[in-house]
């Protein structure tokens, strides 16, 4: 994944979310999660937002979700800055 992307993990049962940036190798990690169903959202300016639904987290298991970002249009994730 791209360096400096914003990765948000949301528990779909509780609506609680956590956000982490990807590191200098493009990796991210969330620890001590409550078991349940989650949604993963990845955003970076200039790229299309990616949503992954129905990620199931179990007790004492590692879950890996690899994401590839696609280049977006010039207005992708544009927040009014020029």
Order the strands across the largest sheet as they lie in space. 2-1-3-4
- Figure out the total of helices: 0
Q: Helical percent range?
A: under 10%
Count the beta strands: 4
The major pleated sheet works out as:
4 strands, antiparallel
Average pLDDT works out at 87
Q: Termini distance?
A: 25 Å
Overall outline: globular
User: Which ranges are low-confidence, i.e. pLDDT below 50, for 5 or more consecutive residues?
Assistant: 76-82
The helix/strand order is EEEE
Secondary-structure-based class equals: mainly beta
Cα radius of gyration in angstroms: 14 Å
Q: Please, could you describe this protein's structure?
A:
The chain is mainly beta and 82 residues long. The protein has a domain of 52 residues. Strand 1 and strand 2 form a beta hairpin. It is globular. It starts with 5 loop residues before the first strand and ends in a 25-residue tail after the last strand.
Q: Which characteristics define this entry?
A:
82 residues; mainly beta; four-stranded antiparallel sheet; 33% strand; globular; disordered C terminus
In short:
Helices cover 0% and strands 33% of the residues. It is mainly β and 82 residues long.
Helix-strand blueprint:
Elements: E1 6-11, E2 17-21, E3 36-43, E4 50-57
């Amino acid at each position: 994944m791209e360096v400096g992307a914003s990765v948000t993990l949301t528990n779909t049962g509780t609506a609680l979310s956590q956000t982490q940036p990807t590191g200098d190798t493009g990796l991210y990690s969330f620890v001590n999660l409550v078991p349940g169903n989650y949604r993963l959202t990845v955003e970076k300016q200039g790229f299309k937002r990616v949503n992954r639904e129905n990620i199931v987290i179990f007790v004492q298991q590692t879950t890996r979700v690899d994401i590839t970002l696609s280049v977006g249009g010039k207005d992708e994730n544009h927040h009014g800055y020029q």
